[in-house]
Each structure stands twice: as structure tokens, then as C-alpha cells.
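Posting this for the archive.
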Amino acid sequence: MYECPNCGANLQFDIASQKLLCRSCNASLDPYAFQKEKDAIEDYSFNVTTFTCPQCGGEIYSSDDTAAAFCSFCGASTILDSRISHKRRPKYIIPFQRTKEDCKKSYMRMMRFAFFAPKELKDPKYIDSFRGIYMPYWSYNISNKGPISLSATRRHRRGDYIITNHYALEGDLDAGYEGISYDASSSFSDAVSEAIAPFDLSQQKNFTPAFLSGFYADTSDIGSDTYKSDARKQAADMTFKKIRKERAFRSHSLNLSSDAANKEWTLHTACDQVDHVMYPVWFLAYRNKDRVAYATVNGQTGKAAADLPADPKKFLIASFVTAVPIFILLNLFFTVKPTAVMALSGLLALAASFLYFRVLSQIIKKEFYVTDKGLLAKKQAAKVNQPLSQSEIDEWNHALEKSRGKGKSKYTSLKKSLKRVGLILAASYIIPVLLLFGIRYGSVFLWGLLFLANAVFTFLSWKKRTKLDKMSEFPFFLGSSVAVLIGLMITAINPVSDLFYYAGAMLSLFAVCFTMLDLIRYYNILATRKLPQFNRTGGDDRA
């Protein structure tokens, strides 16, 4: 705790004045002028009180001894295992610039358009639970320096000929980038940190623990090597874009390999320095059973981002309110044939199947942390204590191969080429047969294609669900398949009465509703995330 030199009360960092403020005697002190003796003993570390949440394993710390009663990562109401520990001192910090009231206003501006969000997300009592937390980041200084030689082409037309001239463009490159940042906490999702980026580095200051007084701070538990290749690639891409805009190179088509390693080598990309820094984030957790949704606001710029699950009741009411006037307008101004109504229900079923498959694919990427490189690295490093499943290992290896450009051997390329040739040859025979069949049988043929396409998405969705271990639940996504099957059967029977078509369309739409309701449930899984269950061992001492 930082004690006021005048009255002994607790000092806290005041965002408005950017100073340490005593709320008892209104004393105001410069954060750099006030230092605790224990913090001044060693310039590379400082004392903090560390809190480990018993429910999610999230670890946060504070430089005062105020009792914590809220976990920013899962919303747990208690935090246990308080202890004093030494943490390596970050080099820089961006102090909070936006107050809690500013944060709540930014959040509510965003929530104005979240029509289907649960009412709890807009409740003033819930919004008041925003907590200020300093998130750890790795800040990379990348340089591109040295002589470069780029091959280029320039084309012009002369009569009936197109002439291509080849050039070797040479020059001296001197480019540098400071503060390319990536979050250093496995608890903080990469998607969330990217959503509230960027931070303005012009307000970055030398770190002193006094800035943390009154706020939480997360520990850095991801090594700096995790994002070094991403920082190098980002710098190389930015440099290449600037080179293309140079007047001398603008009229040429530069030939530079898209392979990241080759581009970095050509542009002499080097990581000169890595700093451990802290950036301000207003953090709010919305917990539902074993899952959690995050709302975050950039504590410097006020940029807001949130996981927004949907309330099924609100969605159904909005759908009904929208459908009734549309139905009335269509009946007043258009004449729709019964067969067209059946066709529309079939297309809606196919769209539902496709959306279901897409949502399941995105859930798998999220649940297996394919899109969160930091957490992947953390789990990979800790797999001795917490083994990865085979699915996680497969997804991890696939993501690594894709990011590194591997897995594309000559044999693989040849195999793909042969497959393409085979498909072309098969299509040259099958397509004419299908066209002749379609001309003769018309509607039945089209419904058959619709049923085939829907069957493909249903099969793929089934495979995705097996990865998510949801097979014990009823497969509601089969509703779209039932809808298409009803349409196919009625079209094949071709009844005389229009009532069969209208009844079939109603049954089809009713079946599609089952798929859509299940789709909302899976969307809510996509819009939330697992609790960060992993073993913590404290901050990274290499910081």
C-alpha cells in the first residue's frame, strides 16, 4: 500500500490528474517523486500482492494490499491465495487516460446496436462492475536495414506484341518500427486484444509501481519468442508496402516472394529489442455456467469491444415481428405460386445448414485455440502437466504448418494437380448427363441437387459435432435435412391440390426453426469462451 505522507491513508492513481491522490486529505503527489523503500532497493523488481482465482486460475496482482473481491477473467466474486511476491519490473507503461465513467459511455454506445444481447449486458448494476486492469504486452523494435536488390518487371504494348522488360532494382534500406505490440497473457485472448488495438505510444512512460495503485495488473506468462516471428512479418509487410509506393519503384511490378521467411531475409528484417510493457484495459466478465463473455474498453483511447451472445427469446420475438409485415406486404402486392413457396423453404433450409456448418467450424478453431497463438504456446509448453487432446495437437500442428508455409511439398502439389485433372474429366461427362436429366424432369432434378447439397453440409456438421463432444445432444441441425426431404417428396409426387404444397412449406419452415434455434445456441458458444483453466506459476521472469 502507498501511504500518504500527510495522513497515512491509501494513495491511489487518479486518472483525471495523472497523479497519486489521497482521498482523505486531498494530497496530490507525482508518481515518480513517490517511491516505497522496498521498491527502490532493486531497480529490476517490485513487491506486489498476487491474487489467484480458484475458479479459473487467472492471476492478477496489485501494488497495494487492498482485498480483491472480483476476478476480471471469469467474474468470480472471491479471489484467494493472497501472497507477497517479487515481479520483474516492466520497462514502460501507458497510464489510464479514460475514467470508469468514460469507459461505461463507450460501452453503452456500442451496446445501442446489440439488439439481441441479454438484458444483463445492459443492466447498470452489471456495467458498474468494470475493473481497470493493466495487461502485459511484449513490445518489439524491428529494423530493416541494408542493401536490397529486388527483381521487377515492366510491360508495354507494341503493335500486336506485349513486351516485358526485366529489371534488378537496388537501393539502401533504412527502416525501423518501435512498439509493435502483442499481449503477453494467456488469459487475454488475442482476438480481444486486437479488437481494442492500437495504443498510442506517444503517451508511453517509464514504469513505476505507483501507476498500479488502485488497479489490477495481469502477469505475463507467455515468452517473448511467441510473437517475435509475427512482429518481424508485420514489419516486413509494412516496409514492402512503403517500397512499392516509392516514386522510383512505383511504375514497376516488384517480384517478391510471398513466403514470410524469404521476404524478411530480402529486407534484412531484425528484431533489435524486446520490452515488457503494460497497457490499460477496462475489463468486464459476463459469466454463464462454465463459459464467460468479455467486454473490454481501451483505457487510453476508449475503443470498446465485446463478446455478444444472443438471447433466443429476443431473437424469436424480433423474427415474428419482422415476418408478419413482410407476409402481409407480399400477399398485398405479389402473387406467389405454391411451388415457389416450397422452393423458398428449401433454400432457407440449405442456408441454415450452411450457416450451421460455418458456425461449428469457427467454434472448433476457437475451442482448440487455433486463433489464439499465445494460449496455444502456453498450453504447448505446459502439456506435461496438462496433456493436449489429439484434436488439439492436430489443430495446433496444422496451424503451425499453415503459418510457416509448410506442408506444400512437390508430391502434395502433384497430387492436387492430378485431382483437379480428374475432376475436370469427370465433370465433362457428368454435367451433360445431368443437364439432359434436368431438362426432362425439371423441378425434381433441382430438388435433388438441393437435397444433395444439404446432405453434404449435414455430413460435415456431424463430423464437426463429434469434435465438440456434443453427440449426446439431439442433432437439431437435421431439421434442415427434413425440410428439404419434405420438399423433394412433395415435388416428386406432384399432387394436384395446392394445399399439399402449402402444408409442406409450413412443415419445412417449422423444421428449419429447430435448426435455427440450435444455431443460436451454438452462436452463443461462439460468442463466449471457456474459462481460462490452466496452471499458473506467476509472471515471466524474463520480462
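The first helix runs from residue 37 to 41. The mean pLDDT is 75.
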